[in-house]
Amino acid sequence: MKLRLLITMVVTVIGIGLGEPASENRVTLVLVTGIPGTEQYEEVFAQREKFWRDTETLGDIKVITVGDGEPGEKSDRQLLQELLEREANLEEGELWLVLNGHGTFDGKKGKFNLRGRDVSSEDLADWLKPCRRPLVLVNCFSASASFIQALSGPNRVVLSATRSGYELNYSRFGTYFAKAINSPEADLDQDGQVSLLEAFLKGSRDTGGFYSLEGRIASEHALLDDTGDQQGTGPDWYRGVRVVKETAKDEEPDGRRAHQFHLVQSEFERSLSPAMREQRNQLELKLLALRDRKDTFEPAEYDDRLEEVLLELSEFYVQATEALEESE
């Protein structure tokens, strides 16, 4: 993905017109704040909510909140169900769902604690089953690992604050992740925007740093799943944004799709239509898959295949910039 950064820099330097962001690029961010339990947690959850809400002014983002106001006639659970069922039937733009609060696990089923009746991982899976939009689910609460198993699937990125339903203590990952989602320090590949993978890595690193500085045994270990295998991968699998451990044969590593999601997009990224972005993303994934199989080719054959993909990427960027110039 360094090629994307290089071309983006060239576009900026030579002054190619970027046009206006396409309306179908709008991200819908559904931010759910659960029951805090104590004043201390109420302040923490409010701070997290502010970090997320502040992103609304930084891009084409629509923020919808649940659980942050005074209770109404409808319960938070009912409001969330109606909202997700409505959003799941739309076709344009990414849908991000952030669950900010506490969770529980009874050995079989995980739940997110709302005011009133809680919502389970199975509930969310059912409400979001019709969704065909690119979907991001950020589970910032204790015992949230079971939500990966229930919600993992194609064209989805699912994060959990824990690697097991039995990590039941209060989770701090949500605070560090919310801070990282638009932090320049999280931009590991220096492309001017923070990907979901980059925020996950910084949030995990900062969470681990808290326990280390406090001299405590870490009681939470975040996971990321974007391959639909319901397993999830921890931050120790990465050096920078590259996977440095080997997966089982023919299995794609987690993180590559997550690195293609950006809540706050750079100017160049916003200028791409969803179709253009998907074409670019598929070419990048094709390049990474080829590199995974490098040892199966003779050197000359690998070089030929690599050149073919790089030429496709170059052609894409030429066509993309021409289209953008014409749209001015």
Written description of the protein model:
The longest helix is centred in the last third of the chain and has 28 residues, at 299-326. Helix 2 (39-53) runs parallel beside helix 6, helix 6 (173-180) crosses helix 7 and helix 9 (274-292) packs antiparallel against helix 10. This protein has 328 residues and is of the alpha/beta class. A six-stranded mixed sheet has the order 2-1-3-7-8-9, with helices on both faces. It has a three-stranded antiparallel sheet with strand order 4-5-6. Strands 10-11 form a two-stranded antiparallel ribbon. It folds into two domains: 23-271, 3-Layer(aba) Sandwich (Rossmann fold); 273-328. It is globular and about 60 Å long. The protein has helices spanning 2-14, 39-53, 76-88, 121-127, 146-151, 173-180, 196-214, 267-271, 274-292, 299-326, and strands at residues 27-33, 61-66, 95-100, 103-105, 110-112, 119-120, 135-140, 156-160, 223-225, 238-239, 242-243.
